[in-house]
Amino acid sequence: MKILPKWLVTVAQVGLAGAWLMSGIIYIATPKAMERVLGMPDDVRLALGVAMLVLAIVLLAGAATRRSAAFAIGGLTAATFAGLLWVVYDIVRAWDAFALFHGALSALAAALLLKRIRAS
Questions:
Q1: CB burial class (10 A; 0-12, 13-18, 19+) of residue 30?
Q2: What residue numbers bound the domain in which 59 lies?
Q3: pTM, 2 dp
Q4: Helix, strand, coil shares of the chain as percentages rounded to 5?
Q5: What is the mean predicted confidence (pLDDT) over 9-14?
């Protein structure tokens, strides 16, 4: 099996961080009237948006620091776990398209996590 180039893994991790960054910004910028649609109180939505932004920053920092694998592994572990929780939330809310999107993000995070663990 051919080993993926390091730059491709880094690009995938930056893309994953971008998806979490986008989600965080959307959750923070969503009007308060979306409370009924999302099924969560406004303060919970804001807290989740901030948590997504923090996760995106950790993922970006993990992609940028090549010497410290622990930082990248920690961020990817958090992204995998958070992505799986979002899949469950999307399934409960019957949002199939979002469940597929978050499932794909979780699969990417898990694959990058395994790659980082094997490389360290």
A1: middle
A2: 6-119
A3: 0.78
A4: 85, 0, 15
A5: 85
